């Protein structure tokens, strides 16, 4: 389709920096480079691929000097995209970058075209340089906000997930081969692999695929961070606890403009993991309608959360709202260890004890602190770090966990097809029909790495990328 043209884009972010890279890929990349960039030592021997050379970027139309820049040529097929790739390392000013990109686009009749988001990576996929799971891993590396998220994405990029999926797919295809024997020779008197053996093989595969499918629980927490919501009655100290945790360790601030709510999320790194704190603490009730919206918003945020931090005020007696908070913890706790109670304001005379909270039904760990004292941050963080660590410690096969809903859906489809195949095999249904289910499982697994893919799926994946990636 449009693989025949040459694309160009800045590969570095917009803004001032030491260096900005302008990247070109496609059949005319070198020709365009030769038109707009001239080495300052043209007679210093033949220029070699993958080596940087200093030169001037000159507007061929006017002869005007645009920048002095390093250039590198990476011929196909051993390049990023599998095509001829040329990069210019310019001075990192936004105007310089704009002008260099404009020159590449304007370079004669055969100029480049501005790349679409993710188009370089998409070309790498289409040219077989990387598979789809690896392309997704590149997006995950860029978006990683914790050490564990980065490590997981790098492991996927290095092919760990793809290899695991390919291994499963090869086993599915081996079963298909067994069935082929039955299909081809069903009239002849040869020893058939018994249907029970086939069903047992499929059963083993189901267990392996299910394990990878279930690793999503861990992989998602690693990739997206553990979403924690702070709940508690007004004035219990929710905002103070948020501030205590963010403190000077505030790592990354992400404003997530929700469609139905505008909860601001703050992310902190807790050990190797990211803890994404949803700030429902700022909700201040000033009228019935507002109060209702505020409470709904808190409940929704708590329901979506992976972890709940429930704040109680030790300087005030137990109230009905505290009972609501306890009910909320119980409603939420789909998994043990997904909530921490904080008994706040320990510096004030006590009207509520940890014992009373337990009597009132709190079954999660209770940490007594004073949120207004900065030195209370380390114990809070260490308690949370331990709990998050336990939460993320879901078994994953050989340490490989999937982290994308697309992969989970594909594995769920594969599981469904394999279960159908197993049942069909045991029910002495014709081998052709068992084979159809088996191949449906193979296709679903193939969708993860892109062996089987549609334009729509590709569009959805590469839309996530920025221009120049
Ligand atoms: P929220 O409504 O739950 O978000 O509560 P805030 O964090 O806004 O705190 C309400 C009030 O309690 C503020 O005046 C805080 O300074 C105060 N506060 C919070 N934590 C403590 C604490 O540990 N000790 C004392 N003495 N005051 C606290």
Task: List descriptors.
Rossmann fold, Gyrase A, domain 2, binds guanosine-5'-diphosphate, 469 residues, alpha/beta, 3 domains
Description:
By secondary structure, the protein is of the alpha/beta class. The chain folds into 3 domains: 125 residues, Gyrase A, domain 2 (2-Layer Sandwich), CATH 3.30.1360.120; 122 residues, Four Helix Bundle (Hemerythrin (Met), subunit A), CATH 1.20.120; 164 residues, 3-Layer(aba) Sandwich (Rossmann fold). Strands 3-4-5-6-2-1-7 form a 7-stranded mixed beta sheet. It has a 7-stranded mixed beta sheet with strand order 9-10-11-8-12-13-14, sandwiched between helices. β1 and β2 form a beta hairpin. α7 runs antiparallel to α14. The protein is flat, with a radius of gyration of 29 Å. About 4% of the residues have low confidence. Bound molecules: guanosine-5'-diphosphate. The site of guanosine-5'-diphosphate has 16 residues, from α9.
List unreliable stretches of 5+ residues.
249-262, 281-286
Query: Main beta sheet, described?
Result: 7 strands, mixed
Return Rg in Å.
Answer: 29 Å
The helix/strand series, from N terminus to C terminus, equals EEHEEEEHEHHHHHHEHEEEHEHEHEHHHH
């Amino acid at each position: 389709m449009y693989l025949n043209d040459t694309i160009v884009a800045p590969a570095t972010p917009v803004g001032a920096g030491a260096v900005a890279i302008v990247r070109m890929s496609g059949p005319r990349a070198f020709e365009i480079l030769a038109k707009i960039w001239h080495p300052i030592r043209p007679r210093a021997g033949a220029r070699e691929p993958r080596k940087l050379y200093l030169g001037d970027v000159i507007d061929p139309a006017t002869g005007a000097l645009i920048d002095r820049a390093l250039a590198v040529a990476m011929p196909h097929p051993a390049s990023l995209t599998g095509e001829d790739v040329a990069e210019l390392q310019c001075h990192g000013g936004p105007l310089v970058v704009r002008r260099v990109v404009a020159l590449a686009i304007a370079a004669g009749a055969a100029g480049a075209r501005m790349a679409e988001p993710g188009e370089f990576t998409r070309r790498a996929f289409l040219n077989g340089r990387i598979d789809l799971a690896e392309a997704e891993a590149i997006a995950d590396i860029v978006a990683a906000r914790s050490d564990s998220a980065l490590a997981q994405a790098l492991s996927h990029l290095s092919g760990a997930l793809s290899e695991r999926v390919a291994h499963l797919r090869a086993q599915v295809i081996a079963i298909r081969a067994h069935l082929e024997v039955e299909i081809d020779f069903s009239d002849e008197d040869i020893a058939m692999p018994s249907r029970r053996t086939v069903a047992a093989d499929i059963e083993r595969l189901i267990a392996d695929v299910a394990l990878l499918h279930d690793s999503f629980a861990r992989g998602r927490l690693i990739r997206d961070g553990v979403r924690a919501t702070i709940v508690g009655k007004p004035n219990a100290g929710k905002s103070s606890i948020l501030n205590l945790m963010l403190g000077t360790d505030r790592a990354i601030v992400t404003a997530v403009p929700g469609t139905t709510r505008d909860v601001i999320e703050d992310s902190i790194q807790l050990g190797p993991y990211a803890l994404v704190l949803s700030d429902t603490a700022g909700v201040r009730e000033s009228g019935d309608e507002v109060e209702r919206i505020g409470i709904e918003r808190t409940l929704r945020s708590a329901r979506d959360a992976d972890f709940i931090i429930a704040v109680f005020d030790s300087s005030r007696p137990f109230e009905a709202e505290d009972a609501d908070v306890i009910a909320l913890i119980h409603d939420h706790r789909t998994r043990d260890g997904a909530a921490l109670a904080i008994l706040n304001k320990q510096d004030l005379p006590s009207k509520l004890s940890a014992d009373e909270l337990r009597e009132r039904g709190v079954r999660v760990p209770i940490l007594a602190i004073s949120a207004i004292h900065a030195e209370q941050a380390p114990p809070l963080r260490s308690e949370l770090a331990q709990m998050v660590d336990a939460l993320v410690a879901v078994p994953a096969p050989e340490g490989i966990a999937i982290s994308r809903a697309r992969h989970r859906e594909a594995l769920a489809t594969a599981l469904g097809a394999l279960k159908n195949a197993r049942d069909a095999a045991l029910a002495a249904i014709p081998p052709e029909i068992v084979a159809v289910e088996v191949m449906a499982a193979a296709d679903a697994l193939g969708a993860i790495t892109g062996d089987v893919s549609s334009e729509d799926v590709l569009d959805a994946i590469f839309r996530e990328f920025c221009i120049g990636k």
